[in-house]
């Protein structure tokens, strides 16, 4: 589709994704970013690698990482920034979603 990018990744997140791709020998796949029903707040975030991109997906590249977001997820993720945090108490991808009305304590689901 056009140049619309519903989700932005920080440099730290991109570096972590590239490291995972290198360690797991993942090539020629897109990072699928999405949401699905579930979690304690109604929707939960999904990150996965895929080679199955649809014509209706928003597909774009950020610093060498191909990203695919389906239309349903794009509506819930518009304006979201994904960062990778490696701290004393927790490590992982953190979603800063301006559309989230409520978030669970672990940060993996929202409504």
Can you offer a commentary on this structure?
The protein is α/β, with parallel strands linked by helices. It has one domain (7-110): Sandwich (Hypothetical Protein Aq_1857, Chain: A), CATH 2.60.300. The chain has two helices and eight strands; from the N terminus they run E-H-E-E-E-E-H-E-E-E. The protein has helices spanning 11-23, 71-77; strands spanning 7-9, 30-37, 43-50, 58-62, 65-69, 80-86, 91-96, 109-110. A five-stranded mixed β-sheet has the order 4-5-2-3-8. Strand 6 (80-86) and strand 7 form a beta hairpin. It starts with 6 loop residues before the first strand and ends with a strand. Mean pLDDT is 88; it is low at 104-109.
* CATH homologous superfamily annotation: HesB-like domain
Task: Output the structural class.
Answer: alpha/beta
Strand % is 35-45%
Order of helices and strands: EHEEEEHEEE
Determine the mean pLDDT: 88
Helix content: 10-25%
CATH architecture level-2 label = Sandwich
Number of domains: 1
How many beta-strand elements?
8
Largest sheet: 5 strands, mixed
- Helix segment count? 2
State the strand order across the main sheet.
Answer: 4-5-2-3-8
What oligomeric state do these chains adopt?
A: single chain
Task: Indicate the CATH topology.
Answer: Hypothetical Protein Aq_1857, Chain: A
Radius of gyration: 14 Å
Name of the top-level CATH class: Mainly Beta
- Taking the alpha carbons of the first and last residues, their distance comes to 27 Å
Could you say which overall geometry the principal axes of the C-alpha atoms support?
Answer: globular
Low-confidence sequence ranges = 104-109
């Amino acid at each position: 589709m056009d140049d619309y990018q519903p989700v932005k990744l920080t440099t730290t997140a991109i570096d972590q994704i590239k490291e995972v791709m290198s360690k797991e020998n993942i090539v020629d796949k897109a990072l699928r970013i999405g949401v699905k029903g579930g979690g304690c707040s109604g929707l939960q975030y999904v990150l996965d690698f895929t080679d199955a991109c649809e014509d209706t997906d928003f597909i774009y590249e950020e610093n060498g990482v191909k990203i695919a977001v389906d239309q349903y997820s794009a509506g819930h993720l518009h304006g979201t920034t994904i960062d990778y945090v490696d701290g004393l108490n927790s490590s992982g991808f953190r979603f800063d979603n301006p559309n989230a009305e409520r978030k669970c304590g672990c940060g993996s689901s929202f409504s």
